Amino acid sequence: MISTSDISNGVSFKLGENIVTVLWFQHHKPGKGGAVLRLKLKNLRTSAIFETTVKSGEKFAEINLERQRMQYLYHDGDSYIFMSNETFEQVEIKEENIGGAVKYLQDNMEIDVLFYGDEILGVQLPQSIVVEITYTEKGLKGDTATNALKPATTENGLEIMVPLFIEIGDKVKIDTNEGNYIQRV
């Protein structure tokens, strides 16, 4: 069992029949009544994000998620095929289990796949990826001193905002959590 005092960002537990992971938490002591814990949770089965409040001292069933390193191979309809780096077994994961991570997938990319027993809950991407810019407007020569941004399209179809000095063919690093430009590579 896991208590409210053990909860921190990234902790996973069972809430009713749902398997959830903590995205954000805050201990709150109102002027009247007992302390509560505000939680922002992600349902790992449906990828739904919701907020809830639980009483301090409440206990939840602890779960063990297994992370297995796999390589993304290809896309087939609404399924994505991954291969285990240890057993070379191929696994088919539905698009709804991958969620927003779909737009960051690249051929032969290695990611962690989350399992709860035999059930596939989703994927965990690396913090950042490197992609090539396939389309962006021309920047003005010498216009690198400001923090102005312009839209750009990457090789996997992702649209991001980049500084004015980025051109077609440049490789850039993107944060997979926020979808933001980090730096030119």
Provide a concise account of the structure shown.
This protein has 185 residues and is mainly beta.
Care to describe what's here?
The chain is mainly beta and 185 residues long. The protein has one helix and 16 strands. It has three domains: 61 residues, SH3 type barrels, CATH 2.30.30.30; 59 residues, Beta Barrel (OB fold (Dihydrolipoamide Acetyltransferase, E2P)), CATH 2.40.50.140; 57 residues, Nucleic acid-binding proteins (OB fold (Dihydrolipoamide Acetyltransferase, E2P), Beta Barrel). Strands 1-6-2-3-4-5 form a six-stranded antiparallel β-sheet, with no helix packed on it. A five-stranded antiparallel β-sheet has the order 9-8-7-10-11. A hairpin with a 4-residue loop joins strand 13 and strand 14. It is flat.
Order of helices and strands: EEEEEEEEEHEEEEEEE
Strand content: over 45%
Q: Into how many domains do the coordinates divide?
A: 3
Determine the fraction of residues in helical runs and give it as a percent range.
under 10%
Number of strands: 16
Amino-to-carboxy terminus distance: 45 Å
| CATH topology grouping of the largest domain | SH3 type barrels
Strand order of the largest sheet: 1-6-2-3-4-5
**How does the helix and strand content classify structurally?**
mainly beta
| Average pLDDT rating | 87
